[in-house]
Amino acid sequence: MTVETVPLQFPASLDADLYRDFGREIRGVDVSKMTEDEFAEIERLLYQHDLLVFRDCDLSPEQQYALTKAFDPSSENYGHGNNKVEKSERSLLRSLLTTLPNVPQVQLIGNGLLENHEGIPNITLKHPSHRTFHRTPHLSAEDEDRGITRFYRWHMDAALYEFAPPKVTTLYGVRVPDAPTQTCRYDDGSTDELEVSLGATAFVSGRVMFDILPPELKSLAVRTRIQYAPHPFVWMSSARAKPTGLGLETEGLEVAYESLPQWEASKVQTLPMVWKNPVTNGLHLQSHPCAATQLFVDPVPETASDKTSPPHPLGTQITNLQEVRDILHEIQRPAIAPRYVYPHNWNQKDLVIFHNRGVLHSALGSFKPDQIRVFHQCNLAASDFPLGPSLEDVNRWS
What we know:
Blueprint: E1 4-7, E2 24-27, H1 36-49, E3 51-54, H2 61-70, E4 98-100, E5 103-117, E6 120-125, H3 141-145, E7 148-149, E8 168-175, E9 181-185, E10 193-197, E11 201-205, H4 206-211, H5 215-222, E12 224-228, H6 232-235, E13 270-272, E14 274-276, E15 283-285, E16 292-297, E17 316-318, H7 321-332, E18 342-344, E19 351-355, E20 359-363, E21 373-379, H8 391-397
Parallel strand pairs: 2-3, 7-9
Antiparallel strand pairs: 1-2, 3-19, 4-5, 5-6, 5-21, 8-19, 8-21, 9-10, 11-18, 11-20, 12-13, 12-16, 14-15, 16-17
């Protein structure tokens, strides 16, 4: 069977030139029973295009787990650990993820009342809402009735403590309601808006995020490592996000380290700001701005090309939380402008596989309680950590 690739249908708002290599729809493959050759081609295409869409799939949770694991055969646990999210009562994720009893690596997400689903007798799912996470003012009820929405939280799927960031995420639309058009409003002082369908998942390319930076910020990015908070989704649980969902406001609302669940310094993660694609060798800017606490900036190497006047040429450690957030926002905010966002508009039985170390994504949409939406999500704590820029990369971009 031949693997056929078809370019995605981009909205008119997207910069199709910059995104010409991003995303492909895959045809001619049954994802539930791929041959070794078919999988090898799918794996290559994923790292080349960062996001693959399969239509009208029939996929059990067991098959979804097996497919996800094939990208990292040594991985075993869900990205946040098997059966750990629901045990952490203060985690921001607890109300959003429900573990399937028979396949703990697969999570149930969605909206509305669901009965007798994969071993769960009944459950009321809640789609992520900016009302529970963003700083006020929120959208008015009138705005939401008119179809105004916001990005919830820009992120990659990762625990960022103890477990290595997953290589891929698979997201399967089990039940998708009718999806009228909504308007995502940025509400950050800009006039930015983006037309999306109800419940779309927004993606931005980490490669494009890096590529559009000016030279001085490219230099800073390739020289910087980011330290994340221990148990970051508990740490940020009382804090409030910016209206774009890109990072947190600094109001002193984070949970104090001494009040977090017991943690070990050896499990705190410090990761490069820029991650290297294992197939293309391209650089992807991958920062989870909500979870970051410190920046470690290396000096400009003596062998670097003297082309810019970069920030912190001698290197530094930045511990002031407001400064950390301001730097990350300056670097990342341009790439979530409407011209750089691909909103995937879901159909029932869509399967999306995305390169979790190469893109950021956010939920969207304002659902009513009677709008039933059912998705299965799987990502696995990786068997290794992402690689940062090589010395050659640092010399080139510094």
